[in-house]
Design goal:
Elements (H helix, E strand, L loop, with lengths): L2 E9 L8 H14 L3 E12 L9 E11 L1 H12 L4 E9 L2
């Protein structure tokens, strides 16, 4: 049963060589490998945090809309937890 989701991924690029576009491309490839179908990717830009958690001052926010099985989403979450460039990840189930 395919469901529609929306993800907010916060990337930590401080001191990283890679560009934001290459990081987003890597994440989208991981999503497709997990069996999720991408619908829309919005790069929302860099934003400062109101406080500095874990000594990170700002992050690049990326909003991704996709659809797929709940089990595929679980495997993606686990995979992105291991990615050192992903600072935070939030998911929301959208209504049809």
């Amino acid at each position: 049963m395919n469901r529609k989701y929306e993800a907010l991924i916060v990337l930590d690029t401080k001191g990283k060589e890679e560009t934001v576009d290459s990081l987003v491309s890597t994440i989208s490839k991981d999503m497709e490998k997990s069996g999720l179908k991408l619908e829309q990717i919005d790069n929302m830009g860099k934003r400062k945090f109101p406080f500095n958690p874990r000594h990170v001052e700002a992050g690049h926010f990326v909003n991704i809309q996709f659809s797929g099985e709940p089990s595929a989403l679980d495997s993606l979450r686990a995979k992105l937890r291991l990615n050192e460039n992903v600072y935070q990840q939030y998911y929301l189930k959208r209504s049809a």
